[in-house]
Every structure is written in structure tokens, then in C-alpha cells.
Q: What sequence folds into this?
């Protein structure tokens, strides 16, 4: 039971770190690294000529899917209630 909870916590925590893309940019500080969570600047979509607003919408959809997928993966670690794992 404890390993399942640890795995579920790690999966959920990893999924929730993607919330950084949804949070507002903090104020810039001297010597601090650049804010990495910018949906308007896509290294994949920029060369294709996709506008920053469209890239942000695509990014929001992908972040939502990522968080949801990791939440489902965390929920799936509960093997006692999984319908396909009745033989375990």
C-alpha cells in the first residue's frame, strides 16, 4: 500500500509541476534565471509561423491534458479498485 501511495504522489506531483505554465510570470530579479514557463514562445511552433496567441491556446490544451493524464495515472496506482487487475 505504501509504495502505491508514494508512486501516486510522485505522479501527481510531476503532473502538477506543469501548473507553472498557467501561473503568472513573477517579477524579474537581478541575477535570477529567466522564467522558463512561457507558452507564447514555442521552439516547435515558432518556426512554423504560428502566432503567439495560437501557441498559447495549444499550450493550454496540452498542459491540461498533461495534468489530467498524470492525475489518471496516479489514480490508476490503486490496484485494489482497478477492474483489470482482479488477479493481483
A:
Amino acid at each position: 500500500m505504501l509504495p502505491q501511495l508514494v508512486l501516486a504522489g510522485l505522479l501527481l506531483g510531476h503532473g502538477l509541476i506543469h501548473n507553472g505554465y498557467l501561473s503568472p510570470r513573477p517579477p524579474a530579479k537581478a541575477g535570477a534565471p529567466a522564467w522558463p514557463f512561457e507558452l507564447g514562445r514555442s521552439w516547435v511552433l515558432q518556426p512554423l509561423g504560428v502566432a503567439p496567441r495560437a501557441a498559447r491556446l495549444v499550450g493550454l490544451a496540452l498542459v491540461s491534458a498533461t495534468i489530467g493524464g498524470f492525475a489518471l495515472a496516479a489514480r490508476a496506482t490503486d490496484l485494489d479498485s482497478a477492474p483489470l487487475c482482479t488477479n493481483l
Observations:
- The first helix runs from residue 2 to 16.
